[in-house]
Design goal:
Helices cover about 75% and strands about 5% of the residues. The chain has helices at about 1-25, 35-55, 60-65, 65-80, 100-120, 130-150, 155-170, 175-200, 200-210, 210-225, 230-240, 260-295, 300-320, 340-355, and strands at about 85, 90-95, 100. A hairpin with a 2-residue loop joins strand 2 and strand 3. It is globular, with a radius of gyration of 21 Å.
Length: about 350
């Protein structure tokens, strides 16, 4: 029954996604006129992938998790040399008009491989030495794709990798003092990094490049509530009232209306009532996934914790940045934003969750 409820939520997401992307296409150039058709194709492919994964024995994926991880690493290396550069990032392979982003699939491979690795240490004695060994081994697993993805550069996906790692270690049962140590180290590193950014901007650009400098600058624009993208997004949502401006009649332009700011496109098109409806469906969907994890083995719990961590982070970050509560980081809204790689990766993970829950 839980599986059926999750499938219904996915169908609702698909309808909302296609309609919102179609509405946002009126803000874009003519080359984006048919992106809603592409999204329909991606959804058909994604549901097929979900069904194939659902029908497989879950042990198959755990058994070959290391090889999946290696495939992901190879793809991340290849995209640095043969990928197509878009918006300053070399993150995509383009095949006959369709873009494929390896870093999105790396999230799937990481979750499977990390859950398999942590399961091997489920019976160890939780002392300082043993936990330190587990942290070092799993940190190495995360570090390689993080460095390769950062070189593209795509800091947004790197954040996903780190969130997967933190959540899965937490469910594994690592002692709390490791989190205290980590937050202390991260806090000091961030302070030094931000101080360097604010006081040595020319040197910062020389080391990290103009694109990364621009990403950092956007964070400070959010802090000061400035920037055209955020201002126009908030104004667009504000004009929607209860029932919205209708499809194709979004009143104000803002960049990336079909990806990063898809929630704004949806809110502006359909209004406050449908905003609440979408949030209710999202919450119901997330709770249904969490409930599946409650009565499963430790390996499956760890796996589902990785899945729900990136879904929750994507939802909170995207909606939060669309309404000015969180910094603009280029994170898309799971299952709603335009993009085939993102959609297929999320649907693959849901297929695995349904597989875990099937009788």
């Amino acid at each position: 029954m839980k599986n059926f409820k999750i499938i219904i939520c996915l169908f609702i997401f698909s309808v909302i996604s296609v309609l919102s992307i179609y509405s946002s296409s009126f803000l874009l150039s003519s080359e984006y006129s048919y992106i809603h058709i592409k999204q329909i194709i991606w959804y058909i492919i994604s549901f097929l992938v979900l069904f194939i994964i659902y029908k497989q024995k879950k042990e198959f994926f755990y058994k070959y998790s290391f090889y999946l991880y290696i495939i992901g690493i190879i793809l991340l290396i290849l995209v640095l040399f043969f990928g197509v550069e878009t918006n300053g990032a070399r993150s995509w392979f383009v095949i006959k008009g369709f873009s494929i982003e390896p870093s999105e699939f790396m999230k799937v491979f990481l979750i499977i491989y990390l859950s398999t690795t942590l399961d091997k240490y489920k019976n160890i004695k939780h002392n300082f030495k043993n936990e330190f060994i587990v942290i070092l081994k799993t940190l190495f697993i995360i570090l390689i794709p993080s460095i390769l993805t950062f070189l593209q550069p795509d800091t947004g996906i790197v954040l996903f990798y780190l969130i997967i790692y933190i959540f899965m270690l937490f469910i594994y049962g690592i002692k709390y003092h490791w989190y205290i140590i980590s937050f202390f180290i991260i806090g000091i590193s961030l302070f030094i990094f931000i101080y360097f950014f604010l006081n040595f901007k020319n040197s910062f650009i020389n080391i990290f490049g103009t694109d990364f400098f621009y990403r950092m600058d956007r964070l400070f624009q959010w802090k000061n509530k400035t920037g055209m993208q955020l201002s126009n997004a908030l104004n667009s949502i504000g004009t929607s009232y209860l029932y919205g401006n209708k499809i194709g009649k979004i009143p104000i332009y803002y960049p990336e209306p079909h990806t990063d700011f898809i929630f704004t496109s949806f809110a502006s098109t359909f209004g406050f009532i449908f905003e609440i409806f979408l949030i209710i469906v999202i919450v119901y969907f997330d709770i249904s996934i969490i409930k599946i994890a409650l009565d499963k083995s430790i390996r499956n719990k760890i796996f589902i914790s990785g899945v729900i961590s990136i879904i929750l982070y994507g939802q909170i970050q995207n909606i939060g940045m669309n309404i000015g509560l969180l910094p603009i980081t280029g994170i898309t809204l799971p299952f709603i934003s335009y993009g085939g790689s993102s959609l297929i990766s999320y649907m693959s993970l849901i297929g695995f969750v349904l597989n875990i829950n099937k009788k």
